Amino acid sequence: MTQRTHLDHGLSVLHARLRTPAPAAKLPPQRDIHPFITLSRETGAGATTLGLELLPRLDRAFAGGPAWVLLDRDLLTHALTQHQLPASLAAYLPEDRISEIRATIGELVGLHPSLWQLEQQVCEAILQLAHVGQVILVGRAAHLVTRTLAGGLHVRLVASRANRVARIARLLGCPPADAATHIDRQDEARRRFVRTNFAQDADDPHLYDLVINTDHLGPAAVAQIVLQALQEKSVPPAPAPV
User: Fold this and answer.
1) Distance between CA atoms of 186 and 148, rounded to whole angstroms?
2) What three-state secondary structure class fits 7?
3) Which of 143, 135, 161 is nearest to 214 (CA)?
4) In total, how many domains does the chain have?
5) 196 — phi, psi (to 5°)?
6) pLDDT tens digits, residue range 69-108?
7) Which CATH number do you get for residue 184?
8) Residues near 154 by Cβ (< 8 Å), separated by ≥ 6?
9) What is the pTM of this model?
10) Domain with 213 in it
11) Does residue 145 lie within any of the structural domains?
């Protein structure tokens, strides 16, 4: 699946979900907890590949609900700028959830419209999508934006520098030295974004439910690990004994 096909497919799935939300009667009982996944990654660790591997597995595992959608940075930005995504999502959330989301955004990024307008919009979209559920959110510190929501599984993908350089060189068709420079710039930009906006260290393993090294595990194996963890986390806790 090319990046363009991935973008078009993701938007079409998202729009279909917003036009025709699945009837509540068809949803499994645990849907009180809306499952979603956040993927944080080192550059070249394989987040988009994993996301595409997960989609059909998630659709089978959570059959009866709406199709899952993978939202990486490009798709989310495109949806926001072209399709008024938060406004569309708001129709499917209770009013108290909307005010809760807006209050959370104020705490996360501050109320500075001229400087933070786009970031507020992105954070609001991420929170709304997570509330609706059945979405994979890649990057944008989604694990921090959604950390108070039940049902989310927060995953960090890492890999050795040598493997990541080789992957990016193949992907971009460039010399390894250029791939290494690209990796350094991307990783530092992501660390700076998390540090500046959330006062956190993106490399801190305590911020995630799973940290997976993709050096020796292929996408199918990693997808199976993530799916099993999400299924366990999506089961409501048993009532406390009386």
Assistant:
1) 27
2) helix
3) 161
4) 1
5) -75, -40
6) 888 765 565 555 554 555 554 444 444 443 444 445 444 5
7) 3.40.50.300
8) 37, 38, 40, 143, 146, 147, 207, 208, 209, 210
9) 0.74
10) 32-73+133-232
11) yes
